Structures are given as structure tokens and as C-alpha cells.
Amino acid sequence: MSRNEFSCDCNIIHKEAVDKVLNKMPSENTFNHLADLFKLIGDTTRCRILFSLDQDEMCVCDLANVLNMTKSSVSHQLATLRRSGVVKCRRSGKEVYYTLDDDHIVKLFEIGLEHINHKG
Amino acid sequence: MSRNEFSCDCNIIHKEAVDKVLNKMPSENTFNHLADLFKLIGDTTRCRILFSLDQDEMCVCDLANVLNMTKSSVSHQLATLRRSGVVKCRRSGKEVYYTLDDDHIVKLFEIGLEHINHKG
DNA sequence: ATTATAGTTGAATATGTATTCAATCGTCAA
DNA sequence: TTGACGATTGAATACATATTCAACTATAAT
Which of B87, B77, B75 is closest to B46 using CA atoms? Predict the structure, then answer.
């Protein structure tokens, strides 16, 4: 009744389990946001940027040197992080300084690192 | 001295800050692992699979129905999750049942959800 | 053995996205 | 106002990966 479209190519085998999960299932939108959040930190370059900014406020050139990448590349990633509200920036003279702007991200980041170190 | 290759196209502006960060910087390898971890849950389909398995052990057909996707697509993603040690499976008759096999993942997952709900 | 269903797999396709490149803007100093 | 440098941007390129498709394996029932 509520699921009249069959994109799946097989039968439900355990109806109870399926219904139980469907009832608790958050919206498609929630999962999109959630995936976007993890996707944001699911990139080596952005991870390294976030780690760096967690140590110190930095301008684009400094970051480029730390990461050994071009200004352009770093700037593109910073723009992505900024659009997501994870970092913020301020201009001072010719430089633009970036800082972290999201506590949750750092927390996720730390738990992730912990996980890596425990599991090798 | 330690950094003789210049892939970056600009000067270091704040040497102290750069050195400080470089000294604390984990290895390239660590960041790759970390990014891979987040990449794994940085996908809507895999998020929904993980959420479902957190509710109940499920076989592929059940998951396909919950997610409204083909068996094949679900199976591919399950293989990815299995390769990463996040889920495990057991066969019983014709069905293969999947369960979560990683506490940390669920924790990250929950913190992520919390973050989403707080920020809208 | 044959058939049906559950699940997997490899290759092709489609899509998303990180980096590069060239052009441009903003600020400062001469 | 010109030149130099920090930074941003859009388009092109290069690369990664999710889904589709078709073929296949595994198990069970007839």
C-alpha cells in the first residue's frame, strides 16, 4: 500500500524485519545530509586541512606548503569546507586566514583517528 | 632541508605555524585510512544499509526491499562494507544474513545523526 | 536432473568530484 | 598606476566510484 513501486528485483523474505526497519527509518533527506557530512571528511586532503586548522589558524599559502599542494587546489577545498560551514575565514591584508568553525567535526575526527590507531 | 620538493606554488608566510603543524602531522598513511573510514559511511546507500543492520540482522532481499534497490546493487555495497570489516555475514540455506561488525562505526554514525538533528 | 530463488561478480555505464590550468580579483608597496 | 603577491574562480581534465546488466554460483524443492 505504501510501497507500490518495485525497483527491487526480489521478494520480501522476512516481512516483520522489513516492516520494523521501515518504521524506524529516517527520511531520505536525513540520510543525504548524513552522507554529505561524512563525505566532507572522507577525503585525504580535507582531512589534512582540518587537522592543520585544528592546530592553528592558517593562511592559504601556509596550508599549501604544509600539504605540498598548489594554492588553487587548497583554495578549492577550503571553499568546499566553507560552504558546509566547517571552516570560516577572515582577511588581513593580502592573506586570508582560515579557522575551524565546527566542534562536532573535530569530535568525529578524533573518534575516527582513535579508531584507526586501535585497529591499525 | 626535509622538504626539498616544491609542488606548492607559493612561499611560506608563517614559518613557525607551518613547522609546528608539520611536526604534529600524522603520516600520509594515517590520513588515507581516516579518509577511507569516513568515505565508507559517506554514501547514502551505505548509510541506509548500516542503519538497517543496526536495527536487525537482514538478508540481501530484505535489504533490497527496505532500500528499494536491486539485489545486485545492494550486494555490491555489502561487499564493500564487508571488505572494510564493517559488516559480516553468515549463510543459512539460500539466504545470506548480514550483521554489523564494528562498534566504532555505529558510534560515529550516531554522532553524525545527532549533529544533523541539531543543525537541521 | 531440472527448475526456481538467493546471492555474487565483472564489465560497462553513468555520475560525481579532485586537481590542473589560465584568467581574474584584492591588497599593498614603490 | 604599475607591479607583485595572496587568493579565488570557472572550465577542462583526470580519476574514482555507484549502479546497471548479464552471466554466473549456491542451495533447496520437485
Answer: B77
The residues facing A87 across adjacent strands are A100
For C20, nearest residue by CA–C1' is A73
Contact residues for B21 (Cβ-Cβ < 8 A; gap 6+): A52, A55, A56, A58, A66
Query: Cα separation of B69 and B50, whole Å?
Result: 15
pLDDT tens digit sequence for B61-91: 999 999 999 999 999 999 999 999 999 999 9
**How far is Cα B83 from Cα A118, in angstroms, rounded to an integer?**
18
What value does the mean pLDDT take over residues A64-85?
97
Strand C: which nucleotides have any atom within 7 A of a protein Cβ? Answer: 5-11, 17-23, 26-28
Percent of chain B scoring above 90 in pLDDT: 78
